[in-house]
């Protein structure tokens, strides 16, 4: 399907309970295959077989492997968000809490490097046809950061800082996965960029 046609997709109606269960099986199969062998191990036919859905049905949910893996990343971030809500980050300042949150998320990805690599590669390969899925990843990441900040109604300046933090976190993932940055360097970069939060947050 041409990218121009895909970008005009209308919002899908809410999934039924059965459809949602099927979607969850698909995402679980995707994560398992990626966790074992990375991006190349995620083949749509194998995902369909593993999740017990017809191949045509799989393509109706996810038009390509990139769509599927970006959706898998959103699902993984959503799971992380639930864990973080159950055990909120410590820290006296918003910057410290966000830095701890992002490092906890980073370490969760570190435990499954093949899965992390597959999801990040999918984000890198995503064109405009995958914009809705990429936007969901961005919204989920933003929600995680805002929760750590303790903000329900951020200012434009704070949202701008959050976007810069998201970009830095994503870049840190890429440089770590490619072997060009150590965990220690990633931590320093994350802590440094998170100081933007204190600069945009008025003292109470």
UniProtKB/TrEMBL annotation:
* Pfam families, sorted: TetR_C_20, TetR_N
Q: Which UniProt keywords apply?
A: DNA-binding
Q: Does the keyword DNA-binding apply?
A: yes
Q: Where is the composition biased (Polar residues)?
A: 1-10
- Segment Disordered: which positions? 1-20
* Annotated DNA-binding residue span(s): 43-62
Query: Cross-referenced InterPro entries, in alphabetical order?
Result: Homeodomain-like_sf, HTH-type_TetR-like_transc_reg, HTH_TetR, KstR_C
Q: Mind listing the GO molecular function terms for this protein?
A: DNA-binding transcription factor activity; transcription cis-regulatory region binding
**In what residue span(s) does the HTH tetR-type domain sit?**
20-80
Q: What is this protein called?
A: TetR family transcriptional regulator
- Native organism is Streptomyces malaysiense
């Amino acid at each position: 399907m041409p990218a121009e046609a895909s970008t005009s997709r209308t919002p899908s109606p809410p999934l039924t309970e059965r459809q949602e269960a099927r979607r969850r099986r698909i995402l679980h199969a995707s994560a398992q295959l990626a966790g074992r062998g990375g991006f190349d191990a995620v083949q749509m036919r194998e995902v369909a077989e593993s999740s017990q859905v017809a191949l045509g049905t799989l393509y109706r949910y996810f038009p390509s492997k990139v769509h599927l893996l970006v959706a898998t990343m959103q699902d993984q971030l959503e799971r992380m968000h639930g864990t973080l809500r159950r055990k909120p980050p410590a820290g006296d300042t918003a910057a410290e809490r966000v830095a701890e949150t992002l490092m906890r998320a980073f370490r969760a990805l570190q435990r499954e490097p093949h899965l992390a690599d597959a999801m990040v590669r999918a984000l890198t390969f995503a064109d405009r046809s995958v914009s809705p899925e990429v936007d969901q990843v961005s919204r989920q990441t933003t929600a995680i950061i805002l929760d750590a900040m303790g903000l329900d109604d951020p200012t434009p300046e704070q949202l701008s800082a959050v976007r810069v933090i998201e970009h830095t976190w994503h870049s840190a993932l890429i440089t770590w996965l490619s072997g060009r940055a150590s965990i220690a360097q990633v931590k320093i970069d994350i802590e440094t960029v998170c100081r933007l939060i204190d600069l945009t947050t008025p003292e109470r």
